[in-house]
Amino acid sequence: MKKIFLTIIFLFLTCPVFSKNIAVIPFQNISGDKEKNWIGAGFSETLTTKLVKVKEITVLEREQLSKILEEIKFQYSGAVDEKTAVKMGKMYGADVLVFGSFQVMGEKLRITARFVDVQTRKVIDTAEANGNISDIFKLQDEIAFSLMDSLKIVLGEKEKEEVKVNPTDNLTAYQWLNKGNEVLLDSDLDIAIEEYDKAIELDPKYIEAYIMRGFAYFEKDLYDKAIENYTKVIEINPKNAESYRMRGLVYERKKLYVDAIKDFSKLIKLNPKFAIAYSIRGDAYSEQSLYEEAIEDYTRAIELNSPSSGSNYFFRGVAYYKKGDKEKAIKDFKKASDFLGEENVRQDLKSFNINY
After folding, report:
1. pLDDT of residue 10
2. What pLDDT does residue 57 have?
3. Which alpha helices (DSSP H) does 165-238 contain, by range?
4. Average pLDDT of 176-181?
5. Looking at residue 306, what is its pLDDT?
6. Which of 106, 240, 309, 318 has its CA 20 to 30 A from that of 121?
7. Burial (0-12, 13-18, 19+ Cβ within 10 Å), 322
8. DSSP string covering 53-86, please?
9. Spatial contact of 101 and 36, defined as CB atoms under 8 Å apart
10. Which residues make Cβ contacts (< 8 Å) with residue 287, sequence separation at least 6?
11. Rounded to an integer, what distance in angstroms lies between the CA atom of residue 306 and that of residue 21?
12. DSSP 8-class letter at 133
């Protein structure tokens, strides 16, 4: 069904030829102190945010990461089922998975990370960072730059400085945010929202807290509250791409397709090579029966070598079919089958009353 295909999307696609699709698994706590689990949740979340700023990197979207964590029954303590995680990562188009752990000794913090190639299942490299808990942002930078060195990604000075930007100057607010992220993994949305509230109270301009609170409201189907949070992010930073993406998705869920298209168009203006932005705008056009515009967007996403090309071929085929061009539709359904499996495509076409 369409909802299934829509979730196969990725967060900031830029360079179509050289980009690496990366998923960061929450770091495991080997200290035995559950009160420190927030460090593992925060480390992976902030590391992901830093990687997003690198042109040659895309990261697996939050919805897809949640599916992987559910599949491996992730816990902050205990062994991670890396084999299954790699298998799931491959299914969602990831090239590299980042696994890590941390150990707390008093105020000292030791971080280790492994970068695993999804295709070969081999460890590309390892990294280690040591310091105080209060230096957590600096340690995250060290792991991020180690990953880029391992992948032979060369950053310009501007990109380096952007990666080093911290999400907040308030470490306590950061802790509350990641306590929220920790319980969000267990789908305890109400408690997560309470933790995000505390983070925002301490830092009213904490963009990541608004984004995560908006996501929690989105998961609770409280769409107006989600929109309020994403709108607040845009007020703080009108160039925040994630807020336009998520607000656009909420508008689409509310069937406010004109508003959704406006947000996706702003997203594309911010990042013209963001393949998934074309995909989801194409969906909004299709819902309005604007099939020419939808076909153009799906085509652009495919040209950008989107990791979700299977769904792009599928929905472009649906648009062709509804437009009356069955020959092109069948070609696209066959292409989609190469990515998604013929039986899956046939089953999902039934929801569109299309026999393939």
Report:
1. 28
2. 81
3. 171-184, 189-202, 207-219, 223-236
4. 93
5. 60
6. 309
7. middle
8. TSTTEEEB-HHHHHHHHHHTT--SSS---HHHHH
9. no
10. 252, 255, 257
11. 10
12. G
